[in-house]
Amino acid sequence: MHIDIDKDVCIGAGQCALTAPDVFTQDDDGYSTLLPGRADGGDSPLLREAARACPVSAITVSHTVG
Predict the structure, then answer these.
(1) Which whole number is the average pLDDT over 57-61?
(2) Measuring CA to CA, which of 11, 12, 42, 66 is 20 to 30 A from 5?
(3) In CATH, what number is assigned to the domain containing residue 17?
(4) Where does the 4Fe-4S ferredoxin-type domain start and stop, copy by copy (predicted)?
(5) Rounded CA gap, 43 and 3, in Å?
(6) Closest among 22, 24, 35, 29 to 59, alpha carbons compared
(7) Is the separation of the CB atoms in 58 and 66 below 8 Å?
């Protein structure tokens, strides 16, 4: 999986971190960021739900080909 957070769109609502705290956190400014080592989302069952929970659709999750 590939996770992309559009920092220009993110408003820091924190819904991703609340939904999938094993993948997302918020930086010092309150914006969404990935936890270290979680760039691929791992096997979090809530990853796609966290992307859907974003009120401004700043998070996209896609399958990596390889």
Answers:
(1) 95
(2) 66
(3) 3.30.70.20
(4) 1-29
(5) 12
(6) 24
(7) no
* CA 15/CA 12 separation, integer angstroms: 8
Q: Is the pTM of this model over 0.90?
A: no
Which spans in the chain are helix H? Answer: 15-19, 47-53
Neighbours of 53 (CB within 10 A): 17
Which pairs with CB-CB distance under 8 Å and at least 24 residues apart come from 12-19? 13/54, 13/55, 13/56, 15/50, 15/53, 15/54, 15/55, 16/50, 16/51, 16/53, 16/54, 16/59, 18/53, 19/46, 19/49, 19/50, 19/53
